[in-house]
Amino acid sequence: MLALLRPCFARTGPWLQAGKYLCALAGGLARRNGWTIAGHAGDRSPDKTQRLLNRAVWDTAAAMAVVRRFAVAGLGQAARCPGRRGGLVIGALDETGQEKAAPPPLVSSGSTWAAPARSPTASTRCTWPTCASMPGMR
């Protein structure tokens, strides 16, 4: 996948650091934090990975598209495995951090539940399960 991501980066250094980061994320670390990822990547501190994520110049939309195509191709291969009946059902979580409108909290008034009259709809960061499908599949 790292080779597929190369066009997304303006410079070689951040692209190589992205490769270390991907290996650490997929490497089966018991805990994933800045220090454990740096240790797995062979870095003395998390500074390089933090620089990659916060300041490096790269096309995030193109990188997301590459990762999405890579994942769909792998899932398509898994769905075609011999002996698999009924296709492959996949649940995807949207953890983009985009703010979603959440319903107002419910309050109890005896035996009924209702939204408070003065409570505006809250805007929160949530994780929403999404149904993901591949072309030609339902």
Structural summary, described in words:
Strand 3 (107-109) and strand 4 (112-114) form a beta hairpin. The protein starts with a helix and ends in a 6-residue tail after the last strand. The chain has five helices and six strands. The strands form three sheets. It has a two-stranded antiparallel ribbon. Strands 2-5 form a two-stranded antiparallel ribbon. Strands 3-4 form a two-stranded antiparallel ribbon. The chain has helices spanning 2-5, 12-26, 34-41, 47-54, 60-79; strands at 90-94, 99-101, 107-109, 112-114, 123-125, 128-132. Helix 2 (12-26) crosses helix 3. The chain has a domain at 2-70. It has 138 residues and is an alpha+beta fold. The longest helix is centred in the middle third of the chain and has 20 residues, at 60-79. Residues 106-132 have low confidence and may be disordered. Helices cover 40% and strands 16% of the residues.
Key structural traits:
5 helices; alpha+beta; single chain; 138 residues; 40% helix; 6 strands
End-to-end Cα distance, whole Å, is: 27 Å
Averaged pLDDT:
75
State Rg: 21 Å
Q: What class do helices, strands and sheet pairing give?
A: alpha+beta
Number of helices: 5
In total, how many beta strands?
Answer: 6
Low-confidence spans: 106-132
Assembly state: single chain
What's the overall geometry?
globular
- Topology as H/E string? HHHHHEEEEEE
**Largest pleated sheet:** 2 strands, antiparallel
Q: Please state how the strands of the largest beta sheet are arranged side by side.
A: 1-6
